[in-house]
Write a structure and sequence with these properties.
Elements: H1 10-13, E1 14-21, E2 26-33, H2 36-43, H3 50-57, E3 65-69, E4 74-80, H4 100-103
Antiparallel strand pairs: 1-2, 2-4, 3-4
InterPro entries: DUF4387 (IPR025496)
Domain DUF4387: 11-103
Pfam family, one: DUF4387
Amino acid sequence: MPETGTPRTVADLALEVRSKNAGPFWVTMELFIRDSTGYDLVAGPGYLSAPVIARLYGVAAETIRIFRIPELNVVKISFPRPVAQGSLRDRDIHAGQHHVPLALYPLPEVF
């Protein structure tokens, strides 16, 4: 959490935000949220939707898959990699840095 104690980004509500390959053509990101209150905000309708992820990552909204697991306070998001793993233009072969835009996504002002 930030020094003020007020959560400002998705990362502030999470125990962990990570990304990884899901094969050579897909990326998967996982949000492990601290508690059910944070989970309800992050997993709720309209906050982390396919159009939001599409805008953050420059992928087509219809290709995005979002899995919500309330029993674990986890949200999993998968989408096609922008380039195939290991190809000439691949800047992150393990997809280990793809989570950063999601982690830094701001929370709504009303939170």
